[in-house]
C-alpha cells in the first residue's frame, strides 16, 4: 500500500536497519521502545491486521521468526510479551507483532 510506512520500509523507500529479514518477513526495533527490547515482527506483504491473515504458511513463517528472535535476544528465561493490536486498536494498519522484554519476575533474576 502506497501510504503505509511499513510497506515503504519493506520496499526500501524508507531506510531501516533490520534485525532480521527474509523474502517474506522483516524485523526491526520499535522507534519508540517501551521495554529494553522492543522489536516489531511482520510480513513484508501488506495485511491490515490479524483478522485478515489467511495464509497458514505465512503464519508459520512468522512463528518461526518470533521464536528465533526470542532466542537471539536471550528472552527465553527473562520474560517476554507478544502483542498484536488489531481491529482499530493499532496505530499502523499493517500487521505486526510486538516482542517486548525483559519483563516480569524473570527479568530481575
Ligand atoms: P501499533 O500499530 O499500535 O501496534 O503500534 C505501532 C508501533 O509502530 C508503535 O509502537 C510505533 O512506535 C512503531 N513505529 C511507527 N513508525 C515506526 C518506524 N518508522 N520505525 C519503527 N517503529 C515504528
Ligand atoms: Zn503496509
CATH class: Alpha Beta
Tell me the CATH topology: HIT family, subunit A
**Molecules bound to protein:** adenosine monophosphate, zinc ion
Percent of residues in helices: 10-25%
Strand order of the largest sheet: 1-2-3-5-4
**Gyration radius, rounded:** 14 Å
The whole-number mean of residue pLDDT values reads 96
The CATH architecture can be given as 2-Layer Sandwich
Largest sheet: 5 strands, antiparallel
Describe this structure in words.
- With 109 residues, the chain is an alpha+beta fold.
- The chain has one domain (5-108): 2-Layer Sandwich (HIT family, subunit A).
- Helix content is 21%, strand content 20%.
- The protein is built from two helices and five strands, in the order H-E-E-E-H-E-E.
- The chain has helices at residues 5-10, 56-72, and strands spanning 20-21, 25-29, 37-43, 81-83, 97-101.
- Strands 1-2-3-5-4 form a five-stranded antiparallel beta sheet, covered by helices on one side.
- Strand 1 and strand 2 form a beta hairpin.
- The chain is globular, with a radius of gyration of 14 Å.
- The model has no long low-confidence stretch (mean pLDDT 96).
- The site of adenosine monophosphate (AMP) has 10 residues, from loops.
